[in-house]
Amino acid sequence: MSAPDFAQLAAAHAIDLDKDASMLRLGGSDAEYFGATARDASGAYWVLRAPRRGDVQLAGRQEAVALDFVRGKIPVVLPDWQVHTDKLIAYRVLPGIPAAEIDPLMGELIWRLPQDRVPETFAESLAVVMAKLHGLDASLAVEAGIPAVSADDLRMRMKLRMDECNTLASVPRNLWGL
Question: 62 with 75: CB under 8 angstroms?
Fold first, then answer.
């Protein structure tokens, strides 16, 4: 399946993209979404995500619920989904530089931080965010519509997904044993 026409999708969702086609760049795709970044006519940059399959739409709805639940409760800037339909998720690009990104051609994680000397502030800020996240009231999360999953259930689901992936495309032994 090839990437959708993001210019057409954006227009259908009232996002007026810059007429300069070079301001629309495919990238940031993953197993669930095709991704692109684009500049609109006012000069603002957007992240555009289009589901690859119909089953991803439920995960997108769950992601929206999770983002809404943690917004304002953890010390990070979160995407503000200004468009969320079954065909497109769109939000303004977040400030700053990501710690890592997925290479659109190779599908590999590319670190922006130097791996041999990760700044201490990175680990410290990540620890603060993780502590805040784990300190949230799980019962309130369930009330907000976030499914609760036990660690054992999560391990079982992950094992099933890994086995399914290994069946579809054999994972090299040196990676499977990690």
Answer: no
Q: What count of residues does the chain have?
A: 178
Phi, psi at 109, each rounded to 5°: -75, 125
Residue 23: name the closest of 9, 41, 5 by CA.
41
Question: Are the C-beta atoms of residues 18 and 44 closer than 8 Å to each other?
Answer: no
Task: Report how far Cα 150 is from the mean position of its chain's Cα atoms.
Answer: 23
pTM above the 0.70 mark?
A: yes
**Is the Cβ–Cβ distance between 105 and 85 less than 8 Å?**
no
Mean pLDDT by 10 residues, the chain (178 residues): 90 95 83 90 96 88 95 95 95 90 75 87 93 95 93 93 84 73
- pLDDT at position 78: 95
In a 10 Å sphere around its CB, with 0-12 CB exposed, 13-18 middle and 19+ buried, how is residue 148 labelled? exposed
160 has which bridge partners? none
Q: Give the residue carrying structure tokens 């990760």.
A: 118
Angle (nearest 5°) at CA 166 between 34 and 30: 10
User: What is the 8-class DSSP label of residue 109?
Assistant: E
